[in-house]
Design a protein that fits this description.
Elements: H1 2-17, H2 29-43, H3 48-56
Helix pairs in contact: 1-2
Length: about 60
Amino acid sequence: MTGSLIAMGFFYMLKRNNDGLAPEGLDWLPITSLGIFIFAFAFGTGPLAYTIQGEILPPEAKGT
């Protein structure tokens, strides 16, 4: 996850230094790094917070 965030930050840093134009040949980098981040979040510890929340709350607080 960290690598994909670094790659996206690197792309936007290059874009800012290039007067707002995307660097040549790196148009694919933002969407690819976003996809990798979503994949890593889904199979990592990301959904753990939702699982714990469902186990901590009492049955009366849960929806039907």
